[in-house]
Specification:
By secondary structure, the protein is an alpha/beta fold. It has 14 helices and 12 strands. It has a single domain, classed as Vaccinia Virus protein VP39 (Rossmann fold, 3-Layer(aba) Sandwich), CATH 3.40.50.150. The strands form 3 sheets. It has a 7-stranded mixed β-sheet with strand order 3-2-1-9-10-12-11. Strands 4-8-5 form a 3-stranded mixed β-sheet. α2 links the parallel β1 and β2. α1 runs antiparallel to α10, α1 runs antiparallel to α12 and α10 runs antiparallel to α11.
Length: about 350
């Protein structure tokens, strides 16, 4: 449960929308991440594969998620660009794969160990049109975005460079970043940071770093790219337009509260609390009381989650759910009274 985000959108942010862009939406990740907000989340997802886009839209509609899928290729607005279709669905790119580097990598796929270059080899090329987020947003009547995830196989920087208007409104970015030149000319983490830092974004975290072994090695040290040792290949970088930082761009109280909600959802709980405290100290008494109440209740909630006694009770409840004998069920039900946040 995202206690702070839920409390904010049922309290101070009631009636507001959190606008989310999911650029590279295969798998539907952002729709699932923000679905708990219901209609308070307005999600726009971009998936170039029209068939996958239709499938994801049907799933979102069936689950009542407020998400619209758009079958568009993002980048700079340009007609007639050549897209390289890779052997693996996640390896297609407008950039050419660096096979000399990729062929050194072990790539686990469906129970097999492949050379990384095998999955990335170009099997065909198609000509498509790309559109910038700025141009799409103008046509859609959108002038502000709160959170944007961008993962489009090497074009993350191009997407941001081509859309300064929308980028200037984003509170937090979640980007796929690479640490080596897996495609020729692909911007690496340093290039991304050099672009975003002057525009008021701070690198906050890098999650899900994937490391790969070497194909020439006769042994493999671990199976999962997320847990094994090896050469770091890519990760997911969280950038924020931090209103607390010196020289920060002006940010309204409403948007600071939205950023606090985003921070909690993205696993940055202490930062979410810092934002609430920062805003509490700069608001009028009535609004201050509402923020103080959320800080107090959220503190109680999260401290409660860490209580070992609560963890024991939860484990007992889980066992109850799996079917203990009826006499034991009646003995354990009073434990529910010890869980004020259920």
């Amino acid at each position: 449960m995202h206690f702070i985000a839920t409390a904010l959108f049922s309290g101070p942010l009631a009636g507001e929308r959190l606008r989310v862009l999911d650029c590279g939406a295969s798998g539907g990740g952002e729709a699932a991440r923000w679905a708990f907000l219901g209609r308070a989340a307005e999600i726009h997802a971009f998936e170039a594969d029209a068939g996958e886009c239709a499938r994801l839209q049907a799933e979102a509609d069936a689950e009542g998620i407020n998400c619209r899928y758009h079958p568009l290729f993002l980048g700079r607005t340009e007609k007639g660009r050549v897209l390289n279709i890779g052997e693996h669905q996640f390896s297609s790119s407008f950039l050419e794969p660096n096979l000399a580097l990729l062929d050194r990598i072990k790539y686990p796929y469906q129970g097999q160990i492949l050379r990384g270059g095998v999955a990335s080899r170009v099997v065909r090329r198609v000509t498509v049109d790309t559109i910038s987020l700025d141009d799409w947003a103008s046509g859609a009547g959108i002038d502000e975005v709160d959170f944007a995830k961008i993962d489009i196989e090497g074009l993350e920087l191009e997407v941001m460079e081509a859309s300064p208007r929308i980028l200037g409104t984003v509170l937090a970015l979640y980007l796929d970043v690479v640490f080596n030149e897996c495609w020729f000319g692909t911007p690496r983490l340093g290039d991304i940071d050099n672009f975003l830092a002057p525009r008021g974004f701070t690198l906050w975290d890098i999650a899900r770093i994937k490391r790969y072994g070497k194909y020439a090695s006769p042994i493999s040290v671990g199976e999962s790219a997320l847990t094994r040792a090896g050469q770091a290949a890519n990760g997911e970088a969280l950038y924020v337009a931090d209103p607390v930082a010196d020289g920060a761009r002006p940010t309204s109280p409403t948007r600071i509260l939205k950023l606090a909600a985003i921070a909690e959802v993205m696993g940055q709980l202490e930062y979410a609390f810092e934002l609430l405290v920062f805003l509490r100290e700069r608001t009028a008494s009535g609004e201050r009381e509402a923020i103080e109440r959320i800080i107090r209740d959220a503190t109680r909630y999260y401290r409660f989650q860490d209580d070992r006694r609560v963890q024991i009770i939860r484990r007992l409840r889980q066992r109850v759910a799996t079917g203990l004998p009826a006499p034991l069920l009646s003995l354990l039900r009073p434990l529910d009274r010890l869980l004020p946040f259920r």
